[in-house]
Each structure stands twice: as structure tokens, then as C-alpha cells.
């Protein structure tokens, strides 16, 4: 490695500054330059919704280190010894002569910057749907600090006005809460039949949908935006879908992002099947002197081993470190990602990783699934809140393929255990013996994820036949004949119940003495509030010689359809 | 397996009922009996401090399932088909004839109960220190619901009165908070120089000590109780230590528990080196028809592979399941425990797993340690709170030996990742690539535990020499000559600083231009608030040719000694 190696980083948000900083720490002699087309560097892009909501007062806070040091041009130069060329646009990269041809946006001057190693950290761009009206005043996207400042200034003035959010993904959900905090009236329009697109199975997304309703926010699912309409001064006034028209003083479009690959294409670097820049495990592109990381680069899915596009600030930071290592002679390799994501909507948290049940089925996996609804800490504490864990497990390898967790309680902690388990290469059953941290304010004695792993083990071993709520609903919709056996107490039944002629109430404590009410030739599907008693009932009836008994995963709590609720 | 196998469980709190219930689920034909000397079954012993505090109103709540079903004798009999013999004392077990000789405490009648398989789940008993006065009125222990009811009745009447807690372990800490919530005036006396005994290293325990002080609770460390004094009516009036006397209207003794092994000893079962009942991985005792689990049984330490005594409700439940499996013909094996523990004291949470630095040193491990103090979520959110992660890593295998986490923020989530990593059998460096769930309300973009793993990797690779705060303090106490270089801003320095003549302030941004103030021949130890800038300074100076530079782990935040704080 030459002692005065010239490293150039294109892109100054997450991966780029991370790589540049670590290179200088590992090799203080390296000459490191960051080229950024905007003004700002190293800001927390994921924090933009919290700046819009007003929770973060100044955008400077998004650029600070945890101890409050603002990472501006001065900081990078003075503290880190990194040269910053912001307001600078790269026009062309001459790979043969290893030279970058750029232009200063402010002065118009041309700059030539030679490199030994080049890092592309050029990020992603928001997708613009191919409809009329996306360029009207009041139609916004959210990717840069500038975008957020524009929205916040407008939304300050728009208090009480109407906003339409197009797209119910992670950004759409976070901005819904931000707009609500700013006192706006919001409608969310999502093309698919659930929020977060393919990231959630329907019975998990259901609980997020309920939270929109609980906060009085219309969520229009399976509705396609046809057109954004403006007035004669070019200001947005409404959004037309295939089902109606919604008045709008402001529109936010959040229908996903795509990798920035224009420059890489011009340089004739290889583009992967996902449309992002192709890199190897060392994050090297098809040119061995050029690395790519963050939102512009492809990842490997840790579960399937296949390429995936999963732009995420946390991954971008990991990429920065890996690239720096490799440039400084350390053979660091990315192990890929699981597609983990988490967000909150008011009082509901939702997290996911790996494959959904649908993704797994589409990929041909033979799976079992688990639904475990239970309080997130000792149930006798008032702070205890529900979380619902869904696991998707490979029946053959017994490995966890994916997890989804939703509810008002602490979903994040259990998600981290699922993610750690996937990374371990072990089976889902291993989780059952993790010595997790137990005390009543933090978890039940058997942590929710341990119970979920135990249920998975039971299912893998064939103890207790069960149906998912979706399967039971399909049986009902097919007019199948079975006893839908509710084993809760009469009081619980009065308060909330599934209304269907198949439903029969026999409290678990009375089941042994009520067998005459249950014909042996009929199929029986038992359930309770969370299907702990439902499982007991299945075991009891099967043990008594009933030939066709199962329980319904997750009980009434996980029934993602209409149900009767008293009062 | 005979179809009407007779299974007898001795002990009805956690492991016993768990095993009994699962046996009935796996083998409904089995005849399962639980013998319990007390009245109550299957209660959450760990919830007792929260019943004392009044957070849990009725002790029945401690006996309920998460859906509110009370697990009383009726429940076990009627719902689970398990026979309960409570108020029943086992006198003798005839292993040869497989028969239990018991006595009904209420009627005085003798009972003979034959068994095919026997499960000992007889728990632990609180230790009674060998001092005078432990039998006075007002001197309490805390292990059973009866203990808790007695304390709560007294403490209700004792509002504003004085309590002395002997023992600063997990129970002592939880009861401190409970007593405070009941309006009592508390003094805590601990024989060792820190709370939680051997479970924490001193620089972590320091932050718990500060929380006692912040809540106005005298914590008397390194103080030995000599005697509990009573008045002439046999009521407690004070506690005498080797350093003073403390008036007391009530005393709680919480100096640990020991396994109940009397019965096992009488049965001539093998007792392990820890003093608990010796079991194999299947939790079988030295008699293959007798199993033992929960607080009476020995565990294997997952890190050292050696026996350890680690009574914990979470482990007891795991044991119950494993024993049930084995009795029903499934070869389930315990993988051991890490000694994980967690508790909260007012606004501080503290968790630990595996080996402390001291334990690891005593066992001869060559370790590196990490101290990472940082906010538990995106620093720009007002909800962000500090957590300090300490990792102890085996320098040779790069495996995590232990973790301790303390602070007002979310320590539990990161502890679960550490525990999962230890269980995975991989190295600490693996954590750096866990695709943990990131969004600003849940974590920084680089989660705290990922940053800690990255620091560990740097240290394992020899990047950046560092000292722990304890090592720096030892250098100071040895009157060593070095520059203790604070690279924070003058404002931060005014607000809080370490006061020592070696301390020299040069803000990081001015370091490059201030090298003339730093003689190359002197040793330099750099630090900042959390040692992010301290590490940068070390890199910068080392890169500039300074031969003897290091940084101090964790910065001012982790300095566990007196420091100047303005105002």
C-alpha cells in the first residue's frame, strides 16, 4: 500500500463519510476526499420524519455526533483531515487514467481529481410515479434535508390543512405520524392491500391498519392513484384514484426508492439483477479499484443467498466500515442482510426480518408458522403490553426464515433475538435455550420469543395440529363444516368474540365433563384468547380419542377479521 | 413407555408445574401428581417485590396465566388433569420401592405415593446470616407469597418508618425500590464493595451506586452486619455493623439463596460441587428415574463448561420443559446458562451475562474489554437515553465471554443480542454484521452493541492502544507521569471534568495545530466525553509519529470516580 494513497469518495451522507473516517483512522497518511453534490454532509436521513414532526427542532441536530459535535465541512477537514468538495457534481470518471472530472456547482469551475481507490456511495433516489401532477407546488418527496425543510415550512403554515400521503411503506407510516403531530388532516393511499407492501403478511399488517383507524386516519388500501390535480396557479388541490378524489393542500409521495446507478452505468460498471450496483462480498464493483456501498449497492439476502435491494441507513454504515477495511488491506466481508425493518405508528410498533410466509412459499420452502400473542413483560405489571410474534420456519432445516412482530409492547428486543438467531446459522429451537435476561419489568419468565420457539419446536415435532387464522378463514369461506370451539370463559365471550354459526363456547374448565356436546366425527378447531387454552383443549380432546382436532394459532387476539366487541 | 405412567413432582412453584403440564400435554394418559408443602402453586416468585411495592395489588395476580386464569388447585385438576397434593410434606423417598412417604400438614394423615418417575423441583431457601437477632419480629426474608404478604401488611402500617435492607443483590435492589414506593426510609447494607456482588465489575456497579445516591438512599458498602438488636418485646429496633448502628422498624435480609438439598441428601442422590443437586444434560440425577430442575439443581456455565449455581425463574421454566420431554421419550438437553441477570433501580437498568472482567482473569483468560457509552436511540430524539456497554472478550478465540450494560436507556435489548451471540458459538465480531432493526425511535444507525463489537474488533486487531478507566486510575495512584489529554470543547470542560494535574485540555479541532504543546517523549492518554474523539485523537497523534499514545475507554462518562461537575 503506497503511503500517500489517494482515496476519493463520491457521496457524503452515510456510507461515504463512514468509509472516509475509518480510512483516515486506519491509515492517517491516506489523502481522502469526499465529493458531495449537495451542501450537507453526514446527516441522519432516517431522522427526516422526526424533523418534519417538530420532534427534532433544527436540521443541525441530524448532522451532530452523539455528543453534539456538528459534522460539517470544517469538522471533517479540521478534525478528521478529510478534504470535502461539496456543491460539486461528478461529470465523468475516467477509469483508465483513474481520474474524476467534476464541476463546482457554485463557481462553475471544472475540477480534476485523481484517485487510487474510488468509493461510490451515491445513494438512492425517490421513485416518481408515472402520473400527471407530480411537479405541482405542494407535491413533495422526502429524501434530503432540503426536502424536509420545504415540507416543514409548508406544514407549519398548513396546520389543519389536508395532506394526502401516497404510499403506505415505512416512510409513509413515519410521515403519517409526523403530519398528525403537526395538526394536519391526513389520508393515506396505498396501491397494495396492506401497508409495508411485501414486508408483512396480512395478519400482521392488520394490526397496523387498526392503528390508522384508531387515530382517525383514513387508510385507502388497494387504491391506485391516477392523477394529482392542481389549480390554475400550479398548486396541488386534490388526488384522483381509481376509487375517488381526495382534496389535498399537500401531497407526499413515498412509493419507494431506487439506487442511483447513472454514474456507475456511464462508467460501465456491472449492474446487478436487482438494478443496484453489483458488488462482491468485499463490496468491490466489477472494477477492482472501485467500491460501492450504501443505498446504491446490491446486498445478498442472508437467508436465501440471493441478491436483494434493501437500502437502509444501518447497512450503509456497515458498508462504509467494510470498504475502509478492504482499502486499508483488511479482508473484511459483508455477510449480507436479512431485510430487517422496524417502525412505529403512534402506539403500535412493527418489526420484520427475513422471509414472510408468502415469500417463503413463493420460493418453494416447506414451512411451519407460529403466532404467539402475549404480554411483553410479567403480565401482573400494569406496564405489560401485547406483542404478537409470527415466525416462519423451514420444516426441513428447522431454521428461522423470517419473523414479524407487532403490537404496542417491546417488539424490538425480540426482533433482535430473531435476527441474531438467523445470523448464528443454528435452528429456531436454539432460541428456546437462550439465557435471556429475565426480571418482571423486562419480560415474562419465558420470554415471548422463547415461547414462540417452543411452539415452533412442538409443530416441527408434530405435537398438536393447528391452523393459521388465514386457513380457518378460508375454511369458513369455503363453507366447510367444523366446530369452531371457543374455550374461554363466558365473560370473555361476552366481551369479544368471533361471530360465526360454527362457534361453540365450552370453557376449558368444563371441557372434560362436556364431551357429549362434541360429536367425535366432526372436525374441531379449538381456540381461546391467545390459544394457550386452545392448545390445551386440542391436547385434551386428542388425548381422549377425538380423531380430528386442531387449534387455531394465536386465538381471538390474532384473528385479523371482523369480530364482535362489546360496548 | 407404559400407558399409565405415574409421574410425581415434588415442588409446585415454577419448574414443577411446568414439567407436570407439559407431560400431560405430551402424554395425556400419564398420571401426574404435584406435591407442594405450601398452599399456593405456580406463582411468580420473581413478582414478589412488585407485590410489596403495591404495583401488584393482589397476590392472586402472581398466580394467573397471562390471560388472567388463576392457576389454583382447581385449575390444575380440572383443566390439566393433574392431581395436586398441597399442604403436603414429603418425609421420605424409598428409591428402591419407588414410593414417597408424605404427611398432610392439615390433617396429619400419612400418604404413600408410588412413582415411576420422580421430579425434584424443591427450589431454594433464603440464607440466614449467622448473627444474633434474625428471629426478631420485623425481621423478614422474601421468598414466598406468605413472606411478601407479611412484609406488605407491615410496610403499609410502617409508612414513613425506617427499613434496613441487608444485602445489595438483585432482591435487595428490587425491594429498595418497592420500599421507597411504600414511603419508607431505607438504608442498604452490603458486605462487599459493590452491589450485585460478583455479578458486576466495579465501573458498572458505580452507576447503580449513583442511583441509590440520586434517590437519597444510603448505601453502606464494605460494611458487615454484626447483630440485629431488638427491644424487650422482641421487636427489631436497630442493626449494628462494624461501622455503626442503624435504627430499624423493619429489616429485610436478602443475602442470597441456597439450593434445597435436604431431601436429595436423605435420598443419597449425588450433590454437585456447587452444593446443588447434580444432574446431567437431560436433568437426570444420579438415579436415572429421578430428575431435578429449577433452583435446587446445578447448571452448567455455557461459557466455561463448568458447574454453576444460578437460580432463576426463567431457567426453572426451561428445566420443566426439558424434564417433561425426557420423561415422555424426547431426548431434550439443557445447554446450560450464562448467568444472565437484569434489574432496575428507579431510572437505571442494569443487566449482565457471562463472565465479568475479574471472573475471566481469575479463570486465566487473556481478555480485551470494551466500554461503549452512547444514547440508546438516535441522539437527536429527546427520548434518547444513555447506556454503557461493557464487553469482555477472549483475545484468543475472539468469543464474547461476558457483557454488562447499565444506564437509564434500553439495556435489555442489547443484552439479548449478547446472550444470543454467546449461544451462537461464533465470535464477538459476528455481532457487527447482525442486521439489527434500525429506525430512530429504536436505536442509533449503528446500534450500540454493533459499535461495541466494532471496538472489540479494533482492539483484537491492535488498532488504537487503550486503557480502561481502572487502569488509568491505577497509573494516577502510582504517581505515574503522563499527559491526560482531554480533547473536548472548553464548554464541556467547564461543565464536568476530571480534576488531576495531568489533565490538559486541547479540543480535538485544535489538536493538529497544537502539537507543540505535546512533548513526544511523554506518554499521552486521550479521552473525551465517550472516547470517540479520544480515539480520533489517539489515531491522529499516533499517525503524526507520537510513540506512546493511547485513549481511555468510555471517556468522562465512564470515569467511575470523583469528578468536578458545575452547578
UniProtKB/TrEMBL annotation, chains A, B:
InterPro entries xref list: FAD-bd_OxRdtase (IPR050260), FAD/NAD-bd_sf (IPR036188), FAD/NAD-binding_dom (IPR023753), FAD/NAD-linked_Rdtase_dimer_sf (IPR016156), Pyr_nucl-diS_OxRdtase_dimer (IPR004099), Rhodanese-like_dom (IPR001763), Rhodanese-like_dom_sf (IPR036873)
Pfam families per record: Pyr_redox_2, Pyr_redox_dim, Rhodanese
Domain of life of the organism encoding this protein: Bacteria
One of the record's GO molecular function terms: oxidoreductase activity
Cofactor: FAD
PROSITE patterns found in the cross-reference section: RHODANESE_3
The entry's keywords: FAD, Flavoprotein, Oxidoreductase, Redox-active center
Transmembrane segments: none
Domain Rhodanese: 478-565
Keyword match Flavoprotein: yes
Family recorded in the similarity comment: Belongs to the class-III pyridine nucleotide-disulfide oxidoreductase family.
PANTHER family in the record: NAD(P)H SULFUR OXIDOREDUCTASE (COA-DEPENDENT), PYRIDINE NUCLEOTIDE-DISULFIDE OXIDOREDUCTASE DOMAIN-CONTAINING
Protein name: Pyridine nucleotide-disulfide oxidoreductase
